[in-house]
């Protein structure tokens, strides 16, 4: 119970910081909606007759997964911010598990990302993407899984960085290639072998494919847009989540102890 309370407090702190930052609130909702509406709409208008699936829905699922994954991962920059403000030192002297601290941060940023995810799902309904109430409710826990996965990925990246400046410079370099390797904007069928290899070691790929596997389940378009089944993607995500969490926490704690 003591550890659960610590996780709750840390998660609540990050969620409260998000709610008290109006510019961040606006930007986190606006950019994904612009990508779906403008990019997805333009692709559907120009390529809709050349493909056998709705490109707007395809872009929606990619942007949804990418936003959840990236937002949770980048939110872990607050670990570095706390380190620079010596807040992390205050947390680490508390009698709680190091894993509780990291899990609390992941939970907090995941809740922030879920707020974005719900907004994107509602926007999809508004622009006419077919989402039944049942599918909407099924997507919510899947989105939460993607948020946790992104948070764990953020932990292992941030644990190897020394400053916010380094994080802001390196993080886009890590994330941007994954937009294309994960198939956010285009299908991954028939990739050259070297791009297929890079795609398979891109964590975001499994987040995107999991969302699409659930969204397109039972649809005739399923085989055209989904690479692996939801169960395979979930297993891969679970394994990578464990590896990222354990390795990232170990590296972060060691760095704190050596300060």
Would you summarize the structure shown here?
With 259 residues, this protein is mainly alpha-helical.
Can you walk me through this structure?
It is built from twelve helices and no strands. It has one domain (2-257). The protein has 259 residues and is mainly alpha-helical.
Task: Give the tags.
0% strand; 79% helix; globular; 259 residues; mainly alpha
Number of domains: 1
Number of helices: 12
Strand percentage = under 5%
Give the low-confidence spans: none
Inertia-based shape: globular
What is the rounded Rg? 19 Å
How would you characterize the largest beta sheet? none
What percentage of residues falls in helices of 4 or more residues? over 70%
> From N to C, what is the helix and strand string?
HHHHHHHHHHHH
| SSE-based structural type | mainly alpha
The span between the termini is: 30 Å
Give me the count of strands.
0
Mean of the pLDDT scores? 80
List strands and helices in order, with pairings.
Layout: H1 2-19, H2 22-47, H3 55-75, H4 77-84, H5 87-92, H6 98-126, H7 133-158, H8 164-181, H9 193-200, H10 203-215, H11 222-225, H12 230-257
Helix pairs in contact: 1-6, 2-3, 2-6, 3-6, 3-7, 3-10, 6-7, 6-12, 7-10, 7-12, 10-12
């Amino acid at each position: 119970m003591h550890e659960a309370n610590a996780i709750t407090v840390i998660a609540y702190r990050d969620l409260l910081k998000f709610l008290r930052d109006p510019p961040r609130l606006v930007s986190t909702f606006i950019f994904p909606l612009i990508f779906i509406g403008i990019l997805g709409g333009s692709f559907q208008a120009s390529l809709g007759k050349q493909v056998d699936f709705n490109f707007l829905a395809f872009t929606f699922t990619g942007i949804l997964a990418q936003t959840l994954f990236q937002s949770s991962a980048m939110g872990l920059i607050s670990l570095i911010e706390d380190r620079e403000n010596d807040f992390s030192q205050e947390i680490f002297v508390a009698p709680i598990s190091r894993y509780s601290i990291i899990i609390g941060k992941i939970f907090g940023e995941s809740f922030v990302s879920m707020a974005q995810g719900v907004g994107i799902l509602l926007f999809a309904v508004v622009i006419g993407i077919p989402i039944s109430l049942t599918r909407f409710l099924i997507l919510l826990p899947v989105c939460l899984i993607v948020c946790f996965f992104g948070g764990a990925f953020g932990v292992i990246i941030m644990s190897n960085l020394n400053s916010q400046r380094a994080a802001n410079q390196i993080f886009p370099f890590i994330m941007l290639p994954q937009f294309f390797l994960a198939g956010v904007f285009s299908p991954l069928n028939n990739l050259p072998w070297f791009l297929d290899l890079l795609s398979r070691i891109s964590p975001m790929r499994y987040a995107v494919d999991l969302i699409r596997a659930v969204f397109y389940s039972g649809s005739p378009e399923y085989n055209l847009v989904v690479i692996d089944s939801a169960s395979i993607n979930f297993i891969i995500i679970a394994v990578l989540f464990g590896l990222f969490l354990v390795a990232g926490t170990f590296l972060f704690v060691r760095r704190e102890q050596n300060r």
